[in-house]
Amino acid sequence: MNAALSEAARIDPGVERADAADFLDRRTSNPHPGAVHMVFNTVAWQYFPRPVHDRATAILEKAGAMANCGAPLAHVAMESDRTGPGASLRLTLWPDGTSHEVGRADFHGRWIDWRPPSL
Fold first, then answer.
1. How many structural domains comprise the chain?
2. CB under 8 Å, gap of 24 or more: what pairs does 38-42 form?
3. What is the radius of gyration, based on Cα positions, of the chain?
4. 97 falls within a domain
5. What is the pLDDT of residues 39-86, one digit of tens each?
6. Angle at 57 (CA atoms; ends 81, 86), nearest 5 degrees
7. What is the 3-state secondary structure (H, E, C) of 30-88?
């Protein structure tokens, strides 16, 4: 945690207040050659109103369709799947669109049970 906080202080990423789908649309509208562009969310998707949820899903699918081996896209989601314990950790990778269960996590970050994806 200390290393993450130090890095955040070093790069000063800022905080942007925006509608989730609008933000996602802006951030994924162009591929990022030479890097994996990662979208990460924690226990948010389930709270989006249906139109925002559907739009955000469509935006990710569109960004995934633009991804390629030189500019891949990754979506890491920590969301409730109602199976417990904790929340599901799921990794989706594009350009192929494969989805992998990579573990479970406590909703408040007290523990994480990582499981390597079967790639």
1. 1
2. 38/73, 38/74, 38/75, 38/76, 39/63, 39/73, 39/74, 39/75, 39/76, 40/75, 40/76, 40/77, 41/75, 41/76, 41/77, 41/78, 41/79, 42/77, 42/78, 42/79, 42/87
3. 15
4. yes
5. 999 999 989 999 999 999 999 999 999 999 999 999 999 999 999 899
6. 20
7. CCCCCCCEEEEEECCHHHCCHHHHHHHHHHHHHHHHHCECCECEEEEEEECCCCCCCEE
User: Is 9 domain-assigned?
Assistant: no
User: Token pair for residue 119?
Assistant: 């790639």
Residue 92 lies in a domain: yes
Let me know if residue 12 belongs to a domain: no
Kindly report whether the global pTM for this prediction surpasses the value 0.70: yes
